[in-house]
Amino acid sequence: MDEKFRMILTGVRELSLKIGIRNLTLDSICQNLGITKDDLKEYVSNEAELVEKVLEFERESFKSIFDEYNFEDVNAIDILLIVSQEMNNRFRDLTPSITLDLKTLYPDIYQHHFEQRIEFIFGKIKINIEKGIRQGMYRQDLSIELLARLYISRLIDLHNPVFFPPDKFSFPVLFEVMFENFIRGIANDEGLEYFKKRRKSF
Q1: Quick one: 40 and 56 in the same domain?
Q2: What angle do CA 104, 114, 83 make, to 5 degrees?
Q3: 13 within 8 A of 58, measured Cβ to Cβ
Q4: Structural domain boundaries enclosing 33
Q5: Do residues 96 and 182 share a domain?
Q6: Average pLDDT, the chain
Q7: Do residues 2 and 56 both lie within one domain?
Q8: Count of CB atoms situated within 10 Å of the CB of 162
């Protein structure tokens, strides 16, 4: 993906948050970003293809967190704290209403995005739980598979506008509460003490 297209996708993402997915057209994008349709059609031919590329860009942005940090010898709790902070910084403006619009307007594209994202997060959470157990930060009696699935189910619930109306709950607040409850549920006494000390630095 070249830099010009990255800049366009960044602009499209910001515009979609401002005017909504429903109002996102090639014309509105060109008008707001100051580009021509020819510029846009170098990369996509319609709105659906553009949405697909934006969601792919979102997934790559999340995956890049793990490329930018060397987590090889890092404490499992520190990894969760770093990833949590990066998610809040990069995705703080996401709301359940955006997810609902994507599911309604582009169901197949959204489903593919959802499955790809969940598969990646599920794998990373399993690795983190295994690492935390080895490091003596998490309880030894944990069911790794079950906990990873519970984490995913809670993450999915955060985007449910029925449970969490976007006018009352922001993604950063919801994620922080879910994240802290998750760590408190899996950490042993040593891990909890470490978490309490380290969270002050984030």
Answers
A1: no
A2: 130
A3: yes
A4: 1-45
A5: yes
A6: 91
A7: no
A8: 8
